[in-house]
Prior knowledge:
The protein has 10 helices and 11 strands. The protein is of the alpha/beta class and 282 residues long. An 8-stranded parallel beta barrel has the order 1-2-3-5-8-9-10-11, surrounded by 4 helices. Strands 6-7 form a two-stranded antiparallel sheet. α8 links the parallel β10 and β11. α2 (64-72) runs parallel beside α3 and α3 (92-105) packs across α5.
Amino acid sequence: MKIGMPLRSGPRNWVEFAKAGEAAGFDSLWVPEHLIMPVKMSGHPGHPDEGESPISGDTPAWDPWVQLAFLAAHTSTIRLGTNVYNIGLRHPFVTARALTTADLVSNGRIDFGIGASWLAQEWEAMELPFETRSRRVNEAIGVIKRLFTEDVIEHEGEFFKFQAVKFLPKPVQKPWPPMLIGGDAPAAIRRAAQHGDGWLPMAQTVETLGANLKKIEQLRAEAGRTGPFDITVQFNEAPSLGDLKRYRDLGVDRVIMPIWNHPREAVESMKRFGGEVLPQLA
Length: 282
């Protein structure tokens, strides 16, 4: 099983942490994404209509494609992922251009984690209807796949309409960078099975994961989908080695987990984890 790490740091540490993670044997590093931070926010992942937001308007955010392209120039093997990108807030042309550029400059090391979003106020700021986000996300994914695989495409859908266009260059990864669908809700599970190359949940336990993996397998079979499908589970707190092995035995391909508690401890924590834990998960 592969281990990825979230890049929880400001810009001055990005290069050092990315290089240290690569040297220690981590599979990947992942960056979060929000386009804008409304002053008043509510809801949280999995429950957009209730509860208190886990972030505030003072939370710093960076453009993930600039961030990942910058890190690609300082690394050579570690994969670089979005966790997760709010694809519905942009036109698919914008996303496709950024994604393919990042894939090219990283020589095919991008994993495209996609979210439908839980933050209604962010959609309101963009003057987009939050209620139709699921259909908009699905349509955007379909358009991007066609841009990456077809010579000429034109499209007339519910949210996007355009005349015949071409899109070059195509990404390094074929047919496209892996699209991992984030979320634990039934709609996210359906989207992962029907449109994704993998699933990227964040609220799964050993007890819940097995049933959901069976559901995805069933939905993929009904949709006639075959081929590789990546299961990447993420945690806000580091699981024990025993739990990591249990997730591995259930069929999890990758775990994204925090490695350090404070930036001062980051490099040493990565070295220690790489030397002591990663060999036991190989």
